[in-house]
């Protein structure tokens, strides 16, 4: 009889772990507390609008392709991709708007027009970023982060200096560029997905390569299509999926996990992959078996949370692209209010996603589907009054920039913030993207993939290696499955 493995959580990492384990012959069951799988990448439909609740940037397409390839499949068997052009656009002060082209030559020309001589330096910057991307993909990211010796590889040793692990991202970018529009373009991926540029290792310029040169893509029918595709693969491999099923305890005996508790029913398993938010997964265990104390968690630097508005608009909006970043206020000030002295931001930057530009079916005919995201510090007090205040603030700036009425065309409006992240995902301090990508929270310094006291409990997800984002969560599931295989094999 096949050995039985439980996966707690049906997000990217849980689905990924489930597929790899089922392929290896285990009897796998996913337990997901929410009504649908997908975790932070879910969707809902209201009044003819279909809103995606989390990811909107499909970066690093090679990682998704590699995932399907591991099962002898092609990503194209499941969904097709459209490369967005412009990849995205940025709104700066005084209504200046810059479209970021998807093709390299056009991008170089744009950079050159923003700062004389910077086109050439952009090419050098990207050559270096590509080296970091390739080295990380080949030698760093697919490692379980258990020991420093995993990284002892000739390419890594030879390139250690070039990987810029110990220099900071902010200074690194400013060695190449001084125009604030270019530095904002470079800073945005690390700021939105992880940590203050000054506390991020310059290694993460690999994200600039991923974002600017590998392209920004859109799956046909939207981001949830990826989850549906992974679900179809999981089912084909024999994985059982139980939604609306919250795990309330992990059972233990003699330094092993033996199963889990759902409602009042006990299920027995030979191993468990805990892929929900790490802190919450540990609360399912007796205190003595947890890897980390409350003090440990309280001293971590969390990646941002978000205040999100899902808006249905009863007209088309010309001035917005699929992805529009509003950088018309100070990035430094907002970054401080997220990381250095966490507080609700005074003059926030924000991001507007209008997926109905690419996929009109996401809104009724002639309407627009708009998702607005303001990054905020995790752990802030979240109230209806604050949400209303920021809705008015963002709408005012949007209307001023577009020079047209938006508020009176809003026919659907739902906000989503810290309290929702906590109730939907048991997210620690309501974080959206897990832990910040600081040096002290990278690779072997991240929360460990193995439970140190229980042999057959493995963690997956954006709070352990390799980190936040859909591609890392996919890789995390693969790493967790490999650990289970070693333990049970
Ligand atoms: C607003 C937002 C925007 C984002 N944008 C992007 C983007 O553009 N591009 C990108 O690459 N990434 C993006 N991300 C990040 C990406 O979505 C996440 O890194 C990824 O989805 C995390 O997957 P996961 O499996 O680690 O966790 P999750 O998706 O959180 O999955 C964990 C699952 O565990 C379940 N669970 C928790 N506790 C229990 C329990 N006790 N019993 C049963 N089930 C339980 C939860 O309900 C959840 O479904 C974004 C995230 C957010 C929130």
CATH homologous superfamily descriptor of the largest domain: FAD/NAD(P)-binding domain
Unreliable residue runs: none
CATH architecture of the largest domain, by name, is: 3-Layer(bba) Sandwich
Name the average pLDDT: 94
Please name the CATH topology of the largest domain.
FAD/NAD(P)-binding domain
How many angstroms separate the termini?
14 Å
- Main-sheet strand order equals 7-6-15-16-17-14-18
| Helical coverage, percent range | 25-40%
Strand percentage lies at 15-25%
Structural class: alpha/beta
Q: Number of helical segments?
A: 16
Biggest β-sheet: count, sense, barrel?
A: 7 strands, mixed
Q: What is the CATH C level class of the largest domain, in words?
A: Alpha Beta
Small-molecule binders: flavin-adenine dinucleotide
What does this structure look like?
This protein has helices spanning 12-23, 61-69, 75-78, 104-114, 118-140, 154-159, 169-176, 180-193, 206-213, 224-236, 278-283, 294-298, 331-338, 384-402, 418-425, 470-488, and strands at residues 4-8, 27-31, 43-46, 49-52, 81-83, 88-91, 97-100, 217-219, 240-242, 247-253, 256-262, 265-268, 271-274, 305-313, 323-326, 350-353, 368-376, 410-416, 457-459. With 489 residues, it is an alpha/beta fold. The chain has a seven-stranded mixed sheet. Helix 1 (12-23) runs parallel beside helix 10 (224-236). The longest helix has 23 residues, at 118-140. It starts with a strand and ends with a helix. 48% of the residues are buried.
């Amino acid at each position: 009889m096949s050995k039985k493995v439980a996966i707690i959580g049906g997000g990217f990492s849980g689905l990924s772990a489930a597929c790899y384990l089922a392929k290896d012959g285990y009897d796998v069951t996913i337990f997901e507390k929410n009504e649908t799988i997908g975790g932070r990448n879910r969707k809902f439909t209201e009044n003819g609008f279909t809103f995606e609740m989390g990811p909107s940037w499909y970066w690093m397409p090679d990682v998704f392709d590699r995932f399907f390839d591991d099962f002898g499949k092609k990503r194209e068997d499941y969904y097709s991709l459209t490369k967005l052009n412009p990849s995205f656009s940025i709104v700066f002060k005084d209504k200046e708007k810059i479209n970021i082209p998807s093709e390299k030559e056009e991008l170089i020309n744009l950079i050159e027009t923003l700062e004389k001589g910077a086109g050439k330096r952009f090419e050098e910057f990207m050559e270096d970023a590509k080296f970091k991307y390739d080295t990380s993909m080949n030698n760093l990211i697919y490692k379980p982060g258990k020991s420093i010796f995993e990284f002892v590889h000739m390419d890594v040793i030879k390139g250690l200096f070039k990987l810029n692990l110990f220099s900071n991202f902010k200074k690194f970018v400013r060695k190449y560029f001084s125009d604030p529009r270019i530095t904002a373009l470079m800073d945005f991926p690390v700021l939105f997905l992880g940590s203050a540029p000054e506390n991020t290792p310059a290694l993460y310029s690999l994200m600039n390569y991923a974002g600017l040169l590998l392209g920004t893509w859109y799956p046909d029918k939207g981001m949830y299509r990826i989850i549906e595709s992974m679900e179809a693969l999981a089912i084909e491999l024999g994985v059982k999926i139980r939604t609306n099923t919250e795990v309330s305890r992990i059972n233990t005996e003699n330094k092993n996990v033996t199963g889990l508790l759902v409602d009042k029913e006990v299920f027995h398993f030979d191993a468990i992959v805990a892929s929900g938010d790490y802190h919450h997964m540990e609360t399912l265990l007796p205190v003595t078996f947890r890897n980390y104390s409350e003090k440990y968690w309280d001293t971590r630097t969390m990646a941002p949370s978000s205040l999100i508005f899902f808006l249905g608009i009863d007209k088309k909006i010309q001035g917005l692209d699929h992805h529009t970043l509003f950088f018309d206020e100070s990035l430094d000030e907002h970054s401080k209010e997220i990381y250095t002295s966490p507080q609700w931001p005074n003059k926030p930057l924000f991001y507007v996603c209008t997926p109905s530009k690419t996929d009109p079916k996401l809104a009724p005919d002639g309407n627009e589907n708009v998702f607005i995201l303001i990054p905020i510090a995790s752990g802030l007090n979240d109230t209806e009054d604050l949400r209303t205040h920021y809705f008015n603030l963002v709408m005012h700036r949007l209307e001023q920039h577009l020079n047209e009425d938006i508020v009176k065309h809003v026919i659907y409006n739902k906000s989503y913030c810290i309290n929702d992240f906590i109730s939907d995902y048991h997210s620690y301090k309501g974080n959206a993207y897990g832990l910040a990508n600081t040096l002290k929270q990278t690779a072997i310094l991240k929360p460990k993939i193995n439970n140190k006291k229980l042999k057959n409990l493995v963690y997956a997800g954006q709070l352990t290696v390799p980190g936040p984002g859909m591609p890392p969560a996919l890789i995390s599931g693969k790493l967790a499955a490999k650990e289970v295989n070693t333990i049970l094999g």
